[in-house]
Write a structure and sequence with these properties.
The complex is a heterodimer of chains A (about 210) and B (about 240). Chain A is mainly alpha-helical. Helix content of chain A is about 80%, strand content about 0%. The longest helix of chain A has about 40 residues. Chain A is elongated. With about 240 residues, chain B is mostly helical. Chain B is built from 9 helices and no strands. Helices cover about 75% and strands about 0% of the residues of chain B. In chain B, about 45% of the residues are buried. Chain B is flat and about 70 Å long. Classes of the chains: A mainly alpha (about 210), B mainly alpha (about 240). Chains A and B meet through helix 2, helix 3, helix 4, helix 6 and helix 7 of A and helix 3, helix 4, helix 7 and helix 9 of B.
Chain lengths: ~210, ~240
């Protein structure tokens, strides 16, 4: 070891990192909401009767899923330079993850027994009412654990937002590190905060999944 | 637009070498990740509590602490602490390998567990050694199960390579950023970059589909040529808690 670990820097940087952590959490929660809503819309649109709807929807989701989040973020921030970075971050995270959650919803919707659709038709329900009253309540319950898992992975990707100058935890860590030249301490601390926050959450999700019988 | 094209033409050698760096990071990172996946995944199935415990701890550590932080830790935090300095590319390869290796170990573990119990019992009844059993009976069947999940993981790894730009490695994104700053065309530059990544991801998918077809053949399962062009399925469960 060339240089001892500076515990004083850890104590000094901690409040700043927590401040940034609030932004991290905010971005995760709002990003997950966007992904959950948009993903559902994409999944429902993907089941439209016309190929003019389903083919473009499929192509766009495939494109979004196959391209790097970082490029999407930096690109969106450069093109819409007048919009606030946090807003861009939340929307881009939401769109990126919607491409994944839509597949989760699709599987959830496929999991609803065919008899349920047939029963709705037999009762001459409108398509809208079929979705609202019968299909979605059953599908959404099945997909909740998987959505939770995507929320956890989104949480671990929020550091990307630092690149477009959103002042979340890693942004604060880099700033503090550069100002005081104590990168080792702040990055170790930031990593531990992530570990402490994400591990219990993933344990909880695993329990939930077991409970719902997956 | 014509401006953009002429600048792109001038910068073409840099873009080409940047693409090479990106591919290098992807391939080397994937190889390290694959190696770690098998080591950690097989260790997770060990009878010894200590081996299982070490594997579990390593996996949870690398899954839990965010790739971004691992990469920055290697690049910024390790040199003052240990005196060793890694080049940006090596940092990238090590961080990608460790992070995705941890996710991959779950794929290996899950696939091995999914091989029917009777196959183990039959191999035991035939007096096969544990190594022989793994190599001839369990692994060929588990491997087929692993490939689709590994495809997703590899593409996620590919999608992380623009992070190298932040360490000022001369990767594809660095080269393209240079084109952008010279031409001032943000929209078209980033769309081009996204398109290149999309093509790379699809090429990787085709390659993995071929691998899957061969692996299935070895088990006597024949699939039509159409399966080669199939796109990936987003697997929610395999990458659970993890790699998007």
């Amino acid at each position: 070891m060339n240089q001892s670990f500076r515990w004083d820097a850890v104590g000094d940087a901690f409040p700043l990192l927590l401040e940034g952590f609030r932004v991290t959490l905010l971005a995760t929660v709002l990003g997950t909401l966007v992904a959950a809503v948009l993903g559902l819309a994409v999944a429902v649109a993907g089941r439209a009767p016309s190929r003019f709807v389903t083919v473009p929807v499929k192509a766009v989701t495939e494109f979004v899923r196959s391209t790097p989040l970082l490029v999407q973020l930096v690109g969106a921030a450069a093109v819409f330079s007048s919009v606030e970075p946090l807003t861009i971050g939340i929307i881009v995270l939401g769109i990126h993850y919607a491409a994944y959650t839509s597949e989760v919803y699709r599987a959830g919707i496929d999991g609803v027994p065919k008899g349920q659709w047939e029963a709705c038709r037999a009762l001459s329900m409108s398509p809208r009412r079929t979705w609202q009253a019968v299909i979605l309540p059953q599908a959404v319950r099945n997909v909740l654990p998987a959505l939770g898992n995507y929320a956890i992975s989104m949480f671990k990707e929020t550091p990307f937002l630092a690149v477009i100058t959103v002042q979340e935890m890693v942004f604060e860590a880099r700033k503090y590190g550069a100002d005081h030249f104590v990168y080792t301490e702040v990055f170790t601390l930031a990593g531990l905060v992530f570990l402490v926050a994400s591990y219990p959450t993933s344990l909880l999700m695993r329990k939930l999944e077991k409970r719902l019988g997956h | 637009m014509s401006d953009f094209l002429s600048i792109l033409g001038e910068e073409f050698p840099q873009v080409g070498s940047g693409l090479w760096v990106t591919l290098e990071a992807t391939v080397l990172g994937s190889l390290l990740a694959l190696l770690l996946s098998f080591v950690l995944g097989l260790a997770a199935g060990s009878r010894l509590l200590l081996v299982r415990g070490v594997s579990r701890t390593v996996v949870e550590f690398f899954r839990g602490t965010s790739l971004y932080i691992q990469l920055f830790w290697l690049y910024y935090a390790m040199p003052p602490l240990t005196g060793y300095e890694l080049t940006p590319l090596v940092c990238g390869v090590v961080a990608f390998g460790l992070n995705y290796g941890a996710y991959g170990s779950e794929i290996v573990r899950g696939a091995i567990n999914s091989v029917p119990r009777a196959q183990y019992e039959a191999a035991v009844a035939l007096n096969m050694t544990p190594f022989h059993r793994m190599r001839k009976v369990i692994m060929p069947q588990a491997w087929v199960q692993m490939i689709p999940s590994f495809t997703n993981l590899l593409i996620q790894l590919l999608k992380c390579t623009p992070l190298l730009w932040l360490l000022s490695a001369a990767d594809l994104m660095t080269a393209i950023e240079h084109v952008r700053s010279r031409s001032g065309e943000s929209l078209i530059t980033y769309l081009l970059l996204l398109a290149v990544y999309f093509v790379l991801a699809y090429a990787l998918t085709l390659l993995m589909n071929m691998l899957e077809r061969t692996a299935k053949r070895r088990l006597g399962l024949h699939t039509g040529a159409g399966s080669l062009l199939r796109t990936r399925t987003a697997e929610a469960a395999a990458t659970a808690g993890g790699a998007r």
